[in-house]
Amino acid sequence: MLTEQEHEVLAQELERYPDRRAASIDCLVRLQESRGGWLSDETLADLAPVLDMSVHELDALATFYNRLNRRPVGRHLIRVCDSVSCWIMGSDAVCAVLRERLGIDLGCTTPDGRFTLLPTQCLGACERAPVLSIDDKQYTDLRADDLDAILADHD
Ligand code: FES
Q1: Ligand 1 atom closest to residue 126's alpha carbon, by position in its atom list
Q2: Relative to the CA of 81, which ligand 1 atom is closest?
Q3: Which residue ranges make up each domain of the chain?
Q4: CA of 91, closest atom in ligand 1
Q5: What is the pTM of this model?
Q6: In what order do the strands lie in the sheet with 132-134?
Q7: In whole angstroms, what is the distance from residue 18 CA to residue 144 CA?
Q8: From ligand 1's centre to the CA of 43, what distance in Å?
Q9: Which residues face 138 on adjacent strands?
């Protein structure tokens, strides 16, 4: 069930669009923010009648857009670019160090819930490859030696 505050937030998003479906991504993002960083089946069911959409349609959106998470994630979301420019510039090595330091594989969350490690498509900074993002911050021109300090900045 949507809270009163969630209803208000969704109403603000709906005002910005000519029809309800057009607001679907932004509404999903806002609910994800208010519900611990991921979208459960219950959350999709709560939102569907607000947008006049089916849960299946919302699930299709939520599994397509990489800003949306359909499973619980850690406090910090690390996205390592694995597109071609980053791959050429050594993203595999960066990813290998991250996996070793965190003790997890891609797609997993550390046992303490601190980090989730995910691959991602181009982050739009190819000229400064390799690139990763942690939450909303981007790190470019990465070297394996940089990673310990970057991780230490995120409790
Ligand atoms: S290929 Fe990695 S940022 Fe574009």
Answers
A1: 4
A2: 2
A3: 4-64, 76-152
A4: 2
A5: 0.85
A6: 108-109, 115-120, 76-81, 132-134, 137-139
A7: 47
A8: 32
A9: 133
* pLDDT tens-place string over residues 109-141: 999 999 999 999 999 999 999 999 999 899 999
Q: Could you tell me the two tokens for 40?
A: 């459960």
What is the spatial distance between Cα 31 and Cα 43, in angstroms, rounded to a whole number?
8
Task: Return the C-alpha torsion angle 29, 46, 50, 11, nearest 10.
Answer: -50
Q: Name the CATH architecture for the domain at 4-64.
A: Orthogonal Bundle (1.10)
So what's the architecture of 76-152 in CATH? 3-Layer(aba) Sandwich (3.40)
3-state secondary structure of 130: coil
DSSP state of 120: E
User: What pLDDT digit, counting tens, does each position of 29-72 carry?
Assistant: 999 999 999 999 999 999 999 999 999 999 999 999 988 999 99
For residue 67, the CA-to-ligand 1 centroid distance in Å is 16
